[in-house]
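ARCHIVE CARD
Drawer: 12
Card no.: 0347
Subject: one protein chain, sequence and derived structure
Cross-reference: see card 0346
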Amino acid sequence: MPASSALSATWLRLRAALWRRLAVVGSLCLGIAVLLTTMDGGGFGYKLLYSVFIGAACTSIVDTTRLAAAWWVDRMRKARGLAVKDSEATMGWRGAVPGTILALLLGPPIGLWMGDQFTGFQSPGLLQLDHAGSRLILFVSLGATVISLVVISTQERLASARTLAEAAQRQAAETQLRLLQSQLEPHMLFNTLANLRVLVGLDPARAQAMLDHLIAYLRATLGASRAAAHPLATEFEQVDDYLALMAVRMGPRLQVVLDLPEALRSLSVPPMLLQPLVENAIKHGLEPQVQGGRIEVRARQQGPQLCLSVRDTGVGLQPAGSAPKASSTADPTAHHSGGFGMAQVRERLATLYGPAASATLAPAEDAEGGTLVTLRLPLPPPFTPPAPLPAP
């Protein structure tokens, strides 16, 4: 059945709340058995048994009525050519009241009959109001059904409100991610074009080669970066393409190490997660250094986390306000704080994973120096391609 139909929506709602409803009905049945035993003494087991049968009958009638009402709503909408969607008429008070009336009329006699079949007893009819047991069962059934209606309807309203709030939160997170990604792509492009402009005046042949690489890079990556996620192997391939583009300008001053274990290649990650960090490492780490240096991009699994690192052997972190080591053109504060790219990556991780993910920027701890950026996020599942759109 289509997920947008009232019938499927009602069925999913009832199935999701199954254990809560069983807990409510079970507690009411136990309370009724205790109350009846206290009032007339003895027979707690039989009273509990009959209470359970009556409760099961009432609950089944209410749920069946709600499903039938949802089916009728779908049928009427289709007959009128209206869109089939979830209906308020099948939820909350308006959807449960018809079922509750039927449950009050049919539930107790059906439950008593089921109990008689199980125990072999012959219960007095509920319409024999001169019988104390009949009156007691009738009033207790009425009160229990009304209480069950109030509790279950309240739970469903709260669950519906929580679902709407979660959907709104997901929508806001997706909107923020699209905004962050729309900022990252022009930033990368502008930086690359600025590098290309410098190279045009110094070495036109290399500028032409760099332009060719840029066209190939944009063709391969910009379309893919619009997706919500892609395999980690694709992320490394895009980083490799970008570094090949930068190698045209830097030549032998740029050395690259990409380390992606085979077992992690298919993991699903957000696109353009590593490229801004690699761009930072070149712009603020290696380019200010006359001899250039090395960039290492690695992926590791550490327990329940995926650890991604970008390390450069460049000028390293500069204290705020200090002069850079080897070039007066370097920004002395950008690499100190991680720059634009680091800020965007941190925001994306916070939006996607909350406190379960982290991004740290620290000096490399060996004699080569430089900077190490480490991303830690919950180990993602393998990437699953989105289902193709149906043919028109």
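Annotation on reverse: The first strand starts at residue 230 and ends at 231. The first helix runs from residue 6 to 16.
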